[in-house]
Amino acid sequence: MLTPKVFTTICIILITFPILLLYHDTLKELSVPYARPIIRPTPQFVASGNSPCLPPTTPEMTEEAVRRHATCRKYSPFTTGKARIATVTAHFGSPSKHYQKAFQSHLLHSLIHGTEVGVMCDAIVDDLWNKPAFILELLMRETMRPEKERLEWIMWVDRDTVILDQCRPISSFLPPENSRFGSWWGRGDRNHDGYNKREVNLLVTNDSNGLNNGVFLLRVDEWAIFLFTAILAFRHYRPEVDLPFTEQSAMEHVIRTEQFKHQTQFVPQSWFNAYDHGGAKMFATREETMDMNDEWVRRGDYLVHFPGHPDKGRAIYEYTEMLKDLPDVWEKATVQRDIGRDVAEFWRNLG
Ligand SMILES: *[C@@H]1O[C@H](CO)[C@@H](O)[C@H](O)[C@H]1NC(C)=O
């Protein structure tokens, strides 16, 4: 529908465009000092804390990233997203070889896609509560930046996760951004807190125990600050509530409340939080997936997560070793599940 606002804008564009073309050269000269690309004044990988938990970026890693980037461009169906995204994780406590290897799979992914990585190397509070504490700290830090330099989304990943498909960008999961037009023309369908009721700010998945917050996507926004403030404070304000999975249970309670449920979107677990079934060797060689549950990983999936795995260290080690030798699933056409169409359909159905 051509609303008066849209009409006016089209007119403005039609009128100003030829003028801009006419003065293009002049403008180019005038704007030289301002035309430099925005370079975020931070390195691509940021470690928080004093302990050195960020593995060094070796020349081998950079070489592998360049090589894989070329393979992904040639064979995978993905386009490069423009959103500023960071993978955020925590690696404190005594370092262990398998978690470092798992972390390296995320660093490689970040090098391939030009995203960022934020890692918490030292604890701030007790145990698992460090996760919401660090996320809140990071959100506040980001929000202090000029809007143009700010991260738009973060993907939290627990340390027991390994990237399986280095070609799939994080942006491929995100809701389509045409909702941005909404914010240009006045913020539209807003509830009393000022949030667009249909805007998705959090993508989470369930497993058989309910919410699993080992991997989730969060829009960097005031909403996220309020959400993580509520999660971090939950045990103090609702001490009577039993939290069998500590901060994960607190998060589950909070995202069910009227204040937060409208911007929270549950998505299928298979998108980015599927679990191992049968081990690394089986993953690489399995031919038939008919009898598999949806939440079990197979070739073509983005990531594998090992919550509650009885032999976690070994499983992670075996997966990382297997992935070194596994030929690219797009190049060799060994993909068993490509959620691409599901993702598009999912957001289309939500309007
Ligand atoms: C997620 O799990 C919780 C707890 O079992 C359940 O109440 C909720 O309906 C589930 N949500 C979805 C979208 O499956």
UniProtKB/TrEMBL annotation:
GO cellular component annotations of the record: Golgi membrane
InterPro entries found in the cross-reference section: Glyco_trans_34 (IPR008630), Nucleotide-diphossugar_trans (IPR029044)
Transmembrane segments: 6-23
Entries under Pfam families matching the protein: Glyco_transf_34
GO biological process annotation, one example: protein N-linked glycosylation
Gene3D superfamilies linked to this entry: Spore Coat Polysaccharide Biosynthesis Protein SpsA, Chain A
GO MF annotation: an example: glycosyltransferase activity
Superkingdom of source: Eukaryota
Keywords noted in UniProt: Glycosyltransferase, Membrane, Transferase, Transmembrane, Transmembrane helix
Keyword presence, Transferase: yes
Family recorded in the similarity comment: Belongs to the glycosyltransferase 34 family.
Protein name as it appears in the record: Galactosyl transferase GMA12/MNN10 family protein
Organism: Setomelanomma holmii
Organismal lineage: Eukaryota, Fungi, Dikarya, Ascomycota, Pezizomycotina
